[in-house]
Amino acid sequence: MDMKETISYLIEAIHSRTPHQVITANPIMVMAALENPAYKEIMVSAELVVPDGTGVVWAAERGGNPVKERVPGYDLLHELMKEGEHYHWRVYLLGSTPEVIRETASRLQMQYPGITIAGFRDGFFGAAEDDEVIATIVEAKPDLLFVARGADTQEPWIAKHKSRLGIPVMMGVGGSFDVISGKTKRAPLAFQKLRLEWFYRLLKEPTRYKRMLALPKFAVKVIRERDRVTKNG
């Protein structure tokens, strides 16, 4: 589905109150799934996986099953917020630091006054506090839950607790709160058009290089296993 169709699909999910885990897939996550069966099961069991990364779009095309367009998680978040103004949706924000989450909540509420920020909490909590966090979120009765705890944590956390949370749309948003709060900047439009947002992030955060090593591995795998790229397994 393209962005418009994705939004329509998720609007229906909210109207039907059907819990959906939305995963914004990029090559690093795909490689993690190939190397970790438990992570792969999380991606396979998600109600919706959208092609966030440019590499995923390229791989799908090379595998002979192209997607309509890239659906970046950052843009999807904002499109959902725009729609939320019409329906007066309630939104819960979870993750990042206390300062970032507080500023993110404030800015989103100002930018989209038609929605309600039903609550927010930073991401610094462990498994022992999960019950408390879940109870607080459920009590807020959100239509949307955005979680920013890093791809290696946020997707597993949502998958583990989604039945208890019961929220129509639950989506991991990675570093989106950092951008929304103003802590970091999104890649300039020129980088976005060239599909080099990942390179811009690497320039700004050189410490990400270890994580980025998955990208050439992904590319080699796609080239070598072209016929299996879009097949499960």
From TrEMBL:
<dbReference type="Pfam" id="PF03808">
    <property type="entry name" value="Glyco_tran_WecG"/>
</dbReference>
<keyword id="KW-0961">Cell wall biogenesis/degradation</keyword>
<comment type="function">
    <text>Catalyzes the conversion of GlcNAc-PP-undecaprenol into ManNAc-GlcNAc-PP-undecaprenol, the first committed lipid intermediate in the de novo synthesis of teichoic acid.</text>
</comment>
<dbReference type="GO" id="GO:0019350">
    <property type="term" value="P:teichoic acid biosynthetic process"/>
</dbReference>
<keyword id="KW-0808">Transferase</keyword>
<comment type="pathway">
    <text>Cell wall biogenesis; teichoic acid biosynthesis.</text>
</comment>
<dbReference type="GO" id="GO:0047244">
    <property type="term" value="F:N-acetylglucosaminyldiphosphoundecaprenol N-acetyl-beta-D-mannosaminyltransferase activity"/>
</dbReference>
<dbReference type="InterPro" id="IPR004629">
    <property type="entry name" value="WecG_TagA_CpsF"/>
</dbReference>
<keyword id="KW-0328">Glycosyltransferase</keyword>
<comment type="similarity">
    <text>Belongs to the glycosyltransferase 26 family. TagA/TarA subfamily.</text>
</comment>
<dbReference type="InterPro" id="IPR034714">
    <property type="entry name" value="TagA_TarA"/>
</dbReference>
<keyword id="KW-0777">Teichoic acid biosynthesis</keyword>
<dbReference type="GO" id="GO:0071555">
    <property type="term" value="P:cell wall organization"/>
</dbReference>
<protein>
    <recommendedName>
        <fullName>N-acetylglucosaminyldiphosphoundecaprenol N-acetyl-beta-D-mannosaminyltransferase</fullName>
        <ecNumber>2.4.1.187</ecNumber>
    </recommendedName>
</protein>
